[in-house]
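pasting for ref
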Amino acid sequence: MRVSVIGCGRWGTLISWYLDSIGHEVALYGRSGSAHMQILIQTRKNDVLELPESIGLTTSLDEALKAKTIIVAIGSQSLRQLCQELCDHGMKNKTVVLCMKGLEKTTGKRLSVVVSECLDASNKVAVWLGPGHVQDFYAGIPSCMVIDSEHDDVKKELVDAFSSNLIRFYYGRDLIGNEIGAAAKNVIGIGAGMLDGLGLSTLKGPLMSRGTREIARLIKSEGGSELSAYGLCHLGDYQATIFSQYSHNRQFGESFIKKEPYGELAEGYETVQALVLLAEKNHVDLPICQGIYEILYHGADCMSVLSQLFTRSLKDEF
């Protein structure tokens, strides 16, 4: 398969390396003004991996769009702008695979919806989601992930083409649930980091259990399946998000509590805005996500928020 990857950060670079390693023809696109891209052009390396010569590097979007399959791995809040650029370049009849976990913060919209709104209807959209960190994959540590799309033929083609001994892919059956679940796990990851920063890591068990339950309710309110919250997109990604040293969201939460600077992208910071929007729209109770939102955006005291969660009215677990 001829594939172009848009996004020259760690994840886009890892995807390029992975797809090349299993035999695909891969080009990696980055903007000419990107510091990450200039380093890759000069050294073919970043701080995690080295790209083989078989992977093409380009700063030309027209060149990247010669591939039939376009994989996008950029920050979620930049997706609409990218789609406008792709539209301006006349992109049609492509398969767009979103390797991103987020929601549009100003609208609460899923990323596949953003793409469908912006691009020509001849393009088909899929999502690639699930647990795994760049460092682990590059070290040969395997994981399981999921590919979902409204188009069954696209799902089958991608799962068949991208599966290997390093990544076992499953066919997704709930695009709504998979996208919301994948985005929301980053918010729970920030909450986990906050607990680490407070020295309350033992509360990660309740956080995982109750966090999954409230996201399941949200997924259902949006028309998806509650079961998706318990799949690879959300609960299955908790180890990588809540415990791993490589988790940007967990580290951001810990740094926030300790009032330490943190410069990496933590998608959950903006995603929590979208979750609050969806909760209000659908009249769904998201006490954990709402608490994280109040801490991040309204300066609420973390221990006071935790106390409020503990003193909520008593109820059955399920």
